[in-house]
Each structure stands twice: as structure tokens, then as C-alpha cells.
């Protein structure tokens, strides 16, 4: 086994867990984006076909705004994932470069600096992730209330 193969195994071991995590997160966000879009289309169909003159119209507006905000947060989160993954790849590569250069005295300082930056980036992304979920959930609950009120008073 050459040192090149060993290096490839090391980098694969470093990047694989992060890659899998980001891939699963992107898949989840794709589903959330699809659900938001489908729910907005369902709302339009409800207003056109079932409730042409609905009661409590403001609920449908609030629900629509919630879905649009969830959609926007999910799209922003999805575009941020690739940037964050690239940052982690850069972090790992710089640590590997330091390790290969045998300049071990700089590794701790570089690692601390990059981990601080990673922590700042991830906190902002987690907020977007939570907002997308909460706006979607809020939109669904408001839509359920709207449909229930309009069916019960029909």
C-alpha cells in the first residue's frame, strides 16, 4: 500500500461522515421544499373549487406567508449547505497539510481558529433550518384551522 493510498483512506475517513450528513440534510430540505410547494398549490385549489367565498380569509393569508417563508428558509439553507461543506473540506485539508508538513506546533492553533469559524457558520444555519420547519408546521396548523372552520360553517 503506497502512501498515496493511505492518504486517500485518511481523507475518505475524514470527509465521509460529513458528506453523508450533508447529503441527508439536503434530501430532507428537498422534501420540505416539495411539501411547501404542493401545499401552496393545494391552498389555491381549495380556494378555487371548495371555498370560493371562505370565512376567516386572513388565516389563508397567514398560512400562505408561512409556507413562503418556510420555502425561502429551506432554499437558503440548501444553498448554504454546499458552502459549509466546502468550508469543512478546506478545514480538513489545511489540517492534513500541516500534519504532512510535520509542523505540528501550528496544528492546535489552526484547528482552534477553524473550529471557531465552523461553529459560527453552523449556528446561523441551524437557525435557518429551525425556521423552515417551524414556518411549515405553523402554516399546516393554520390551514387545518381554516379548513375546519369553513367545513363546519358550510
Average pLDDT over all residues: 81
Give, in order, the helices and strands: HHH
- Overall CATH class: Mainly Alpha
Described by strand count, sense and barrel closure, the largest sheet is:
none
Low-confidence stretches: none
Radius of gyration: 23 Å
Structural class: mainly alpha
Separation, N- and C-terminal Cα atoms: 75 Å
Number of strands: 0
Integer tally of domains = 1
What's the tally of helices? 3
Shape: elongated
Strand content: under 5%
* CATH fold label: Four Helix Bundle (Hemerythrin (Met), subunit A)
Judging by the overall fold, what is the CATH architecture?
Up-down Bundle
As a percent range, the share of helical residues equals over 70%
Give the SSE map.
Layout: H1 3-50, H2 57-100, H3 107-152
Helix pairs in contact: 1-2, 1-3, 2-3
Amino acid at each position: 500500500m503506497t502512501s498515496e493510498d493511505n492518504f486517500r483512506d485518511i481523507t475518505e475517513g475524514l470527509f465521509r461522515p460529513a458528506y453523508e450528513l450533508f447529503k441527508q440534510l439536503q434530501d430532507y430540505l428537498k422534501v420540505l421544499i416539495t411539501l411547501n410547494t404542493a401545499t401552496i398549490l393545494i391552498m389555491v385549489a381549495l380556494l378555487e373549487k371548495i371555498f370560493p367565498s371562505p370565512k376567516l380569509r386572513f388565516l389563508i393569508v397567514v398560512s400562505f406567508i408561512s409556507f413562503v417563508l418556510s420555502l425561502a428558509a429551506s432554499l437558503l439553507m440548501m444553498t448554504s449547505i454546499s458552502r459549509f461543506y466546502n468550508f469543512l473540506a478546506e478545514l480538513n485539508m489545511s489540517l492534513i497539510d500541516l500534519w504532512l508538513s510535520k509542523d505540528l506546533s501550528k496544528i492546535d492553533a489552526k484547528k482552534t481558529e477553524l473550529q471557531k469559524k465552523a461553529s459560527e457558520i453552523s449556528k446561523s444555519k441551524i437557525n435557518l433550518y429551525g425556521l423552515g420547519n417551524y414556518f411549515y408546521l405553523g402554516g399546516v396548523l393554520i390551514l387545518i384551522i381554516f379548513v375546519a372552520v369553513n367545513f363546519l360553517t358550510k
